UniProtKB/TrEMBL annotation:
GO molecular function per UniProt: growth factor activity
Highest rank taxon of the organism: Eukaryota
Pfam families, alphabetized: FGF (PF00167)
Annotated InterPro entries: Fibroblast_GF_fam, IL1/FGF, Let-756-like_FGF
Signal peptide span: 1-22
UniProt-recorded name of the protein: Fibroblast growth factor
UniProt keyword list: Signal
Spans annotated as Disordered: 162-249
Phylogenetic lineage: Eukaryota, Metazoa, Hemichordata, Enteropneusta, Harrimaniidae
SMART domains noted in UniProt: FGF (SM00442)
Amino acid sequence: MDISSMLTVVGLVVLILGMSMAVPTPTTTTTTNSILRTTDILPVNTTHPDENRTIGLSRELRSTVSTSRELASLKQLYCRSGSHLQILNGSISGTRKDHDKYAIVNVLSIRIPSIVAIRGAYTGYFLAMNEMGQLYASKNLTEHCHFREVILENMYNTYASAKHPMRSDRARRRKENKRRKDSRRKRKKHRKEKKRDRKDRKNWYVALDKNGEPRIGPKSNSKQKMSQFLARPVDLQKLSPRFMKSYQN
């Protein structure tokens, strides 16, 4: 075989190999076509047209959920003397009517341990006690509205003022002055003053008598029925539409 024939054979082999590499495989063609078809189906702008509307609905849903939680936390404070605690516009009283709009309250946690505030759900006023031990309704949340909640063995609660009585310091000073006296007569008076100090230092409780009238703090006691309250749940179906509309607004 001469050189020219050998070059011809080599050229044919190279041509055959080049043609085989240039022809695409069926798998690659199918994949490329499928990708093109998928790209043709997808839109250019993938932003949802109702995106802002969805965000608005989510905010509304969150507000509805928070309102539902507040409605679930509504209570009635039933006193063992036979009446529910009412928080009016400036005053406190008791009523025997069940689910009265002024008797629906929220017990709010202020700080640990067991310091709470009692807010009227309809009026928005807070239960408060002044320096004389008198109960009243305060528009603003102050230290006079802080009460110490204690759960008794009979599942009733007592609410003692966390700020009052204010006379304990004066009684303590009076007690220290009397201790300086050495005479027997002064010692007898000192015993009387000691009993008075105990009376001054006792807690002042929220209390309602059998007529629904508030009892002043110095005359209240945790063992009295008028000072014990039961937190009763509220049936939302028994509330008036006017109450529900004002509370949700």
